[in-house]
Amino acid sequence: MATVNIGASNAGDQFYRYKMPAIQSKIEGRGNGIKTNIPNMVDVAKALARPPTYTTKYMGYELGALTKCDEKSGTYIVNGAHSAQVLAQHLEGFIKRFVQCHSCGNPETVINITKKDTIQLKCKACGFVSDVDMRHKLTTFILKNPPEKDKAASKKDKQLRRAEKEREEEGAELDRQAEAERRRKKAEKKEKKEGKSKKEKKEKKEKKSKKSKDDDEDDEASGSPKRDSDSEPEPSDDDDDDDEQGQGRD
User: Where is the composition biased (Basic residues) (predicted)?
Assistant: First the structure.
């Protein structure tokens, strides 16, 4: 089965990894009952990660034709005669509107329906969230028939979220331990600094006291005790009188 790159802008890139089967057209019936069967619509839609009903309904809206979708038998029909080239052109419009990321153009996107009943495309490559133009008729069909969530992908997402939560909790615990260790070291440093300061003050005081004691001992050893000016006797009045009498005799 021939394959083509997803998105017309990537048609010439032989190394482009996102590919899909080339859409096929099989015209059946005649007259008013003529119709176009798309035998590989399931494979095309699978490559785009979209339900085949979306692509078939989109073509019906664009061509103004009724469609028939039988998921059990895998039959997808658009009324009228339409060539594979015409179907491919309309499929390209579907890809641009409902598949490709509006930022990076990557076709690996997931449809999300918001609480306000709007449709968004979340890109798995760049994470950008694209808003789908809600004026197209297919948006009403999508809102009434939302895509089924892949159970395996949903389980994987839950596991990833759980693992991320555990990592965040572990990181928060490590941060708390680091903060506690930082505070402990800070307290130890402060306590050590205060202890050193007290020790230095004590040593300084003891050194000063010892020096004063040594000075007193040196004074005693030299026999020159410090005289107290308050203990010296004051000259008496009798001495003054004796001096005056001696001067009179002279």
Answer: 195-211
